[in-house]
Amino acid sequence: MKNFLLAASLLLGSVSTSFAYNTVTVQDSISTDTHWTCDNQYLLKGYVYVTAGHTLTIDSGVVIKGDKVTKGTLIVERNAKLMAMGTAMHPIVFTSNQPAGSRSYGDWGGVILCGNGPVNWTAGQAQVEGGPRSFYGGTNAADNSGVMSYCRIEFGGIAFSPNNEVNGLTLCGVGSGTQIDHIMVAYSGDDSYEWFGGTVNAKYLVAYGTWDDDFDTDCGYKGKNQFVVAVRDAGAADQSGSKGFESDSYQSGTATGLAGDTSMATKPVFSNVTLVGPLNSPSFTGYDPNYVAGAHIRRGSGISIVNSLILGWPCGVLVDESSSSFGSTVANIGNGILQFKNNIIAGTATASFNKDVVFVRDGARSLTPTTSNSDTTSTGTDWSVLAGYAGPLTWFSTTAVNQNRSYATVSGGVQLGNPFYMLNPVLVPNSTSPLVYSSKHFASWGTGVNDIFDPNSPISYDTTSPATYNVPGFAPDFTNTKAADGFFTRVNYAGAFGRTGVNDNWMSGWCNFDPLNENYDTTCYTASHVGVTNVYATSAPLVKVYPNPAQSNATISVEVKQTGTVQIMILDRTGRVVKEVYNGGALTGTPSYEFSTEDMPNGMYVISVLVNGKHSITKLSVIK
Question: Which of 12, 39, 140, 458 is such that its CA lies 20 to 30 A from the CA of 248?
Answer without folding.
Answer: 140
